[in-house]
Amino acid sequence: MSESRILKDEKEEHQLFRSRAVVAGLIVFFLLSIIGFRLFYLQVSNHEHLTQLAQENYQKRIPIPPVRGQIYDRNGIVLADNKIEYVLEVVRDIAKDMDKNIAILQQLIPISEKEVSKFKQQLRLNSKFQPVILRSALTEEEIAIFSVNGYRFPGFTVSIRTERVYPLGSVAAHVVGYVGRIDTRDLKRLGKNEYKGSTHVGKTGIERFYEERLHGKAGFKKVEMDAHSEPQRTLAQESPISGEDLFLSIDLELQIKAEQLLEGKKGAIVAMDPRNGEILAMASVPMFDSNLFVNGISYKNYNALRDDEARPLFNRALQGAYPPGSTIKPIAALVGLESGVVTNKRTVYGKGYYQIPGTRRHYRCWKKTGHGHVSLNRAIYQSCDVYFYDLAYRMGIDRYSAAMSRFGFGKKTGIDLPHERSGLMPTQEWKQRRHKTNWYPGDTVNIGIGQGYWTASPLQLAHATATIAMRGRRMVPHVLRAVRVSKNLPEKLVTPQTLPSVTLKQSQWDIVVQGMVNVVHGPMGTARASGAGAEYRFAGKTGTAQVFGIAQNKTYNASKLAKRLHDHSLFVAFAPLAKPRIALSVIVENGGGGSAVAAPLARQLLDSYLLPKPEPESIKVETEDELKKKQATDKTIKKADSNA
Q1: What is the pTM of this model?
Q2: pLDDT tens across 505-564, in order?
Q3: DSSP string, 576-617
Q4: Is 326 known to be catalytic?
Q5: 198, 326, 383, 608: which is the annotated catalytic residue?
Q6: Which DSSP state fits 242?
């Protein structure tokens, strides 16, 4: 049988070839299209961005932090300064084996684990080519040690930086505040771009409130880098703009005096110029040293401050909320006169307690035997509680609170310091919202003598007293007095801001002011001892605020109570009488009676501010002849002594 022969099908082979060629062509076209699209994307669409990235491969934009502005008192005494120090910095983009190198460095110079921890925290907040401080305040010996071994640590360098310092430590610490290391919360509040290169930011006080003025504007340096990320040359540079210097209204001498008067106590003193709202002194005692916080306070020191029962970190002058006590009686008299509830001639019989009509409860007066028939003037200078119980009850709480709010109670004053508290000027609506219960007539009676739900800060009391001193003219309290943009330019004064005035008849102001004058200069005034012998006339009002309520059948006996339950001692005043230059408030926590404790402190502060300072004793310069005669006399005396 013959073998079968397979013949080629040329047509089929040709068709197969064509189909394979088409597929291959499509694949090649697809791949070329991808390449073309990619080239278009790289060279046309994304040209600028990629060019910038390419430049950044050999160019680094290094931020230059500005020098922080200084803070002075009104007389040019430095309160917050900058000192130059040497620091060890690390650039993460250059440093290799960072953890290993830090461990080796710790064997050469002291670097604590706390400093390493803070360094790593700052690394997370900064870009990889931005210098971050590993160790501050290097000594000359430490600099020498690193200089010898520096070649072993690429990316580690010694640089010069400025550090915030507070020359007076705790003096005016609550006003000036302090700076601290920047954290993530600060960057969210301030913006990361504005603080590239900066390590510190204001945390409290003036340092925080005027952070934008004090910080300045960062500069930059564009540097060309080689393949090893080593800088070769500077391509461009923009110098930083230093922060502004701030001149506060604080009188340092008066501030120190106020703090010394409160030494060993807990309390606050606020003194302001009623003419323009400048804060002359703001003391809150106990205090703290601002320097502790600059580079991170230790756990031991912070826990000591935090756990201290005296609360040294708490700014009592600005944030304290105290019952104002009888210090508000002059203002209560003004609102009573304005409303027609009381007149200068109307008298109230004070029999040692007050009763709301139709009730049996006794609201006691500080004077158990009572004051008898008292006029408005006498009610002020003898601080008759019964008179002001009756005044508040007859006005009603809502009208009374509305009138008091015009003097700033229950509102922030608007001072240029952070964390001010508004205090509380209660109303019926407030109590219903806060305590889910009705307002009672007894609540109103207690408000009449500055007790009950009413709370105010020492700043508010000083501000309200300044309003009386200026007969209703009100200024926004402020601490910033002037600004200096550059060292070679004069400082520019800040324009004081006004608040809505309290408009009353001149005769009404005169009646109340005379009552306050009689408090300190009258023969029966509650603070007559503090006004005795004064070389100027001033007006004041004592106050004693209860810390806790006393039952109807109980008697207050301080000797049997813990110190923390003793009454607060308060006093407000302004002086001189004719042309007031200072208004103040004093509160001593658990100090007792206002006339015995707070009033004498206020008098000493007024004397310090208003009376001329004693001239320093002159030093007599002896002539040569006088000196020879004195030496000859001394020799004669010695010879006589030896002969004897």
Answers
A1: 0.81
A2: 999 999 999 999 999 999 999 999 999 999 999 999 999 988 755 555 555 555 556 667
A3: -SSS--EEEEEEETT---IIIIIHHHHHHHHHHHHSPPPPPP
A4: yes
A5: 326
A6: P
